[in-house]
Amino acid sequence: MSERELHRTTLGNGLRVVLERRPGSPRTAVCVHYGVGYRSERPGQEGFAHLFEHLMFRGSASLPPGAFYDHIHPLGGQANGTTHQDYTDYHQLVPAAVVERALFAEADRMRAPVFTEHTLAEQLAGVEEEIHQAVTARPYGGLPWPLLPGVAFRGFANAHDGYGRVDQLRGATVEACQEFFRAHYAPGNAVLSVVGDHRPEQLLALVERHFADIPPRPAGPAPDLREPALAEDRWQICTEPSVTAPAVAVGYRLPDPVGDLTGYLAHVVLAEMINHHGLDGLRAVSAGCGVFGPLDARDPDLLVLTALVPPGESARRAVETVTGQWAGWADDPRFGQRRAQAVRRLLLKHHRQYADAYARSRALGCLELLFGRAELLDEYPALLGEVDPALVAAAARRLGTAAKGVLVMNPGPTRTRPAPDHGTALERDTVPDPGRPTSTGGAPGAPGTPGTSGSPSSPGPAPARPVPPPAVQPAPRHGPRCETRSAGGTRVVAVRDTRSPLVELRFRLPLHETGWRDPQDVDALVRLLAERTDAAARAEAVGGLLHLVTDGQWFDVTGCTTPARAGHWLGLLRELLLPLDGVTPLRVPQRPRSPEALMDTALRRYRLGGPAGRPEAAPAADLSTAPSQDGLTDLAEVHRAVLGRGGGWLVAVGDLDPERFAAEAEQALPDRPAPPSGGSSAPRAAAPTGGALALHHEALELVHLTLSAPEPPGDSGAAARFLATAVTGVHPLSRLAVRALDAGLHHPLHSGRDLLLDEPRAYVRAVLPPQDAARALDTVRAALRGLRAEPVTAAELEPIRSFCAAQLLGAFDTPATKADLLRDGLSAGRPLDWAEHLPDALRRATAREVAAACAELYPADAMTLVALGSPGPVADLTDHWSRA
């Protein structure tokens, strides 16, 4: 039996278990899906399933409020939950050594959650804020969800708002929570899915240890989801004051995936085609199967289309135009080709997404709960391939005649929303509200006093159980690899990783002086190369991806392909690197750059020989509009200076033969000539330390700050420097985080390390309102000076050491993250295997070594400030920093 096969069992209490071993995954995903979603709610209970999801994190017999996160977060784990139509899922991603602790936590709240008046009030406030951010405070809030189902469906279960109304939810009681738990959170109404690098028999023993003694009990009745087909289109019109263009959301009923899976998947392919090609008569078109995604709900569900209406067009007319297009779509001679392209894109997204244990565990549990077929996850690629063009064309023609629900949001002076229009008066009168239990039993708390919920079969609280200790965490490993260097000086690294049937590819070059001084010229070069080679479309045509990107420091080519097409991808890369001919010097248009990129560009220019004197003497400049020299750029020369120099790094991670790929890459990469004259500069004089640069940007309401200093010579991969960065401003208990909290700052101050030009540097960044910026600078200065005055202690370091070792595991989660890790490490000058040895090095680093590294990396009085924002505030800040 393959160790990657699914392993299923059902415990005596009815809990279904799905286990999968993923060799090479350093972290393990643990998920529990319960067969209760917002369609399980009754009239008067709207939003209760979502509120209950929040409550399930706020305490159980062995884990008091806060402890559910506290027992995994310090070890680099994460936990969350979501509420969907037909299920609520709870998911954790933890280091493999902590899998038993994650299982223990899920079992404890399945066995004995604790509900109190305090936690209920606390979570009501949290839900109110979530609804405010997702619906009330957001332009077009509620479009398409949660409003569209109420237009497309009539039955209460399918049509009602799954968020509910806060004023109604405030009537919820502890007794109602206990009753909801008893009705829906039985072991027999749940699926546990675990994905990680564990032997199935050992994992099953842990599952039985923690879940088998949870008493069985019947679950409540399933909701009635029967929904008659719409006889005609249904429209709802509402208004929104904060928008300038009308928006529409259209819902078409999907085929039942149980009875007609192929027809359902034909609509998945059609939605992907719509996303890629758009629709005439609408702007910003987006389409998808399922209110929350494909195969994420039982029948009925919707194909959802959202778009903006063009200026001067009415929403009704725009929707009519689209409706009239579907038959033409199906008859278009390009339809078959577009369908094939859509399938390739879907397959690529599927393989990349589900190389991750976390995504796999959630998908396996969902498919097992809804359809009893977790294996659909791996059957999906073959099933998509069976969806021929005729089926997709039939799906398109059906949309031309099918009745649909249409939600329109027009600009207007006030916000209006459609009133609920579902269910019957009889239903509303006969179903109790969530403030009253619907059956006897349990241990309700008296009004105004704390209530508790223990084991459903016992009158008192369940006893607490000891939390299992962590096991030994295996060291992360890249896997079989090969390293070589091409004739043009490119360092090639290939690593075998079979968690995905793809090969992840990364190529990187430094921009060198030409690009570092004028990054907008490299932006123009990237656009020119993309247009000339059509590399992205050619990679996609054979089932791959290729993207050209530049950030002011690097020229990056990123993507993936199938193993059989790796040579094709390398051929496209070769075309990008070959010299350009016949390019006329042109005026380069500016493109918006991120605030961080603007600040780093200013610092690079200064260090390359910017304004004379101290940095504070540099004239303020808005780098988002400053032209490059005389405004004319010879892109052929830029290509020679940046891409024609040779060198760089090429990384491949995936289902490949490392030696064969390395040999193929050596042949494909061009033997580039020596750097052109003028392409490299003479050794630069050391730039002065300290001082400040003020950058004016009238459009920014917030102030962006970067403090940085070159790293002193040494090993850029040293564990002490890694830990020093976390101690300074990465960990939740870092010096910057603690100082910011003490100073009443509610905006994060964070530290990091990277390369600026060809030098490693350490930095601190912050984004704040102008009125808080000076206080933030004082806080940073005090925290950095404190690193010297109050050196790091062993007690302070220990939790940060454990956290960093665990967080590193995330870089090994998938072939894609591993390829990024290798590229970033190699380009920073680190050894190929530095990340494999880092966990052990972190354990050996002493507090004294880390304290010394903190003082070396973050010297408060020698760091250069770059402040970006409105002229007045940034001038005050640079003066403030220079005077202190």
- Nearest-angstrom radius of gyration? 29 Å
| Total count of helical runs of at least 4 residues | 32
Low-confidence stretches: 423-459, 612-629, 676-682
Strand order of the largest sheet: 1-2-6-3-5-4
> Main sheet, how many strands, which sense, barrel?
6 strands, mixed
Q: Kindly report the average pLDDT value.
A: 89
CATH architecture of the largest domain: 2-Layer Sandwich
How many beta-strand segments?
24
**Helicity range of the residues?**
25-40%
Shape: globular
CATH topology of the largest domain: Cytochrome Bc1 Complex, Chain A, domain 1
Q: What is the strand content?
A: 15-25%
Find the CATH superfamily of the largest domain: Metalloenzyme, LuxS/M16 peptidase-like
Task: Tell me the count of domains.
Answer: 4
N- to C-terminal separation?
69 Å
What is the CATH level 1 assignment of the largest domain? Alpha Beta
Structural class: alpha+beta
Task: Provide a descriptive summary of the structure in words.
A hairpin with a 3-residue loop joins strand 15 (545-550) and strand 16. The protein has 884 residues and is of the alpha+beta class. The chain is globular and about 70 Å long. The chain is 40% helix and 18% strand. The model is unreliable at 423-459, 612-629 and 676-682 (pLDDT under 50). The protein has 4 domains: 6-217, Metalloenzyme, LuxS/M16 peptidase-like (Cytochrome Bc1 Complex, Chain A, domain 1, 2-Layer Sandwich); 234-353 and 371-411, 2-Layer Sandwich (Cytochrome Bc1 Complex, Chain A, domain 1); 481-590 and 627-668, Cytochrome Bc1 Complex, Chain A, domain 1 (2-Layer Sandwich); 692-811 and 831-883, Metalloenzyme, LuxS/M16 peptidase-like (Cytochrome Bc1 Complex, Chain A, domain 1, 2-Layer Sandwich). Helix 21 (566-577) runs parallel beside helix 24, helix 25 (719-729) crosses helix 31 and helix 27 (770-789) packs across helix 31.
